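Notebook, bench 3.
Goal today: get a predicted structure for Isoprenoid synthase domain-containing protein from Hygrophoropsis aurantiaca so we can plan the truncation constructs. The sequence was checked against the plasmid map this morning, with no discrepancies at the termini. Length recorded as 249 residues. Pasting the sequence as submitted so the record is complete.
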Amino acid sequence: MFYYIPDTMANWPPPRIISPHYEEVKAESEGWLRGLKPFHPQSQKAFEKGDFCRFASLAYPRLSKVCRSIEGYLRIRRDNVGSLFSFALLHLGMDFPDEVFYHPVLVELLRYMSDIVLIDNDMLSYNREQAIGDASYNIITVIMHELHLDLGSAFGWAAKYHAELRERFFNGLGRVPSWGPTIDKQMQEFLDALAIWLRGNICWSFESERYFGKKGAEIQKTRILPLLPKIKVNTELHREDVVVAEVKL
């Protein structure tokens, strides 16, 4: 069985941009991590495939049962997808008073961005997660369960909702108040960085080997991939005994 991953970022304005310091920072941080030796060798191999330095430069707890409500899932997932912590890095050095940063319009924009990120993440990670029996906590599974849709229709629903969120985000930009020249300039830089970060998240998802192995560039172009067969994972192991399952396309 094959399925199609919608290109949710086809019309997203910021292009792919990577930090000129990527190679330097990657070498230094990986050297530090190898010296620390925090992982079992097989887990270390899986971690390195993620290339988290690329993720930074380009820019949860699991539930035992399926969330039956899409809205309920989104409410929980916003808090643990990690995007809000990442967004915080984008305004380091900017001095936003609380009445600015917690203004209802900005809070609304950040919620839209967080939902966009988690939908992208869940669509791209679904194949690997379903293969290892870990897809119960994924928007695609929740959509199929609540709306009684097949896999392709669930991806289509997620893509449509993603487009609606993008439209709300861009419409919301026109409602951002003015707080004076200094803060307005910083706010524009922050909002631009949010848009670039979103592009970076997508680029990392395909360019690292986390979800698609060596075939990321090919799948990013064709958007078609085979549904992986189920593999057995021992969920009883802990700490250094954990074996990270290798999922190959």
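The first strand starts at residue 2 and ends at 4. The chain has eleven helices and two strands.
Flagging this for group meeting.
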